[in-house]
């Protein structure tokens, strides 16, 4: 029986997990429900609120969805193409830093429940997703550097 490389298996599962989640959420952005749900996050974000001056609520959501879908595909392609992998790693890092920044830019996102601070936990999941994105970026950057 061949030895299993646990590190490689963990990396592969992590990247596929992030890609599936981005793809799923990206597709969901094309619904009116999700477009309205993300509006308070985007409209209060200093780096994204300007999008509403050129696009509708659904248009902004669609644009974000398209970006998430493309990056999800890039993460999967990263297993075979290091250049796309590095770009997908950088792009997904930007996505997850941005979504985590909603925790600081969205009014009312933090609440006290029985004296304990809580927030929108769907955003907190982006901490390990950010870690995977950095791993993809770093791994593919290293491979590119070693080819040069």
Characterize the structure shown.
The protein starts with 5 loop residues before the first helix and ends with a helix. It has a two-stranded antiparallel sheet. A hairpin with a 2-residue loop joins strand 1 (111-113) and strand 2. The radius of gyration is 17 Å and the shape is globular. 26% of the residues are buried. It is 72% helix and 4% strand. It has 148 residues and is mainly alpha-helical. The protein is built from 6 helices and 2 strands.
Looking at this protein, list some descriptive labels.
mainly alpha; two-stranded antiparallel sheet; 6 helices; 148 residues
Structure summarized in a few sentences:
The protein is mainly α and 148 residues long.
Alpha carbon gyration radius: 17 Å
Q: What is the distance, rounded to the nearest whole angstrom, between the alpha carbons of the first and last residues?
A: 36 Å
Task: Give the H and E element order.
Answer: HHHHEEHH
Largest sheet: 2 strands, antiparallel
Helicity level: over 70%
How do the strands line up in the largest sheet?
Answer: 1-2
Rounded mean pLDDT is 95
Q: Using DSSP, what is the number of strands?
A: 2
Characterize the overall form: globular
Structural class: mainly alpha
Please indicate the percent range of residues in DSSP E strands (runs of 2 or more): under 5%
The tally of helices reads 6
Low-confidence stretches: none
